[in-house]
Amino acid sequence: MMPHTSDSGRPGAIARLAREDWHAMTEAANRGRWDRWLRLAREANPALGDTQVERLAAHLQSEHCRKMAKLSADARRIKRELAAGLKSAGDDETQAGAA
Fold this sequence. Notes:
By secondary structure, this protein is mainly alpha-helical. Helix content is 87%, strand content 0%. The chain has one domain (21-98). Helix 3 (22-44) crosses helix 4 (50-98). The model is unreliable at 1-5 (pLDDT under 50).
């Protein structure tokens, strides 16, 4: 039987974590993410200086995080409302069956 896909890479990942510096791995990943925001800021306005590009990148990143947080909250709210609606619909059917 083939292991679940999330389990298949675990032995290699554990071996890599045992031999590499976790802080360096995290720093490299974060740097890559920050480079993305810098690239987007430069593409948005190539005439900006380095300081302004960094400020715009920080703004773009915070706006993205704010948008994702709002979407996440909306999704949780909709899920709660649907669950409450299904529960009340089930209660109505139970009461109608008892009558």
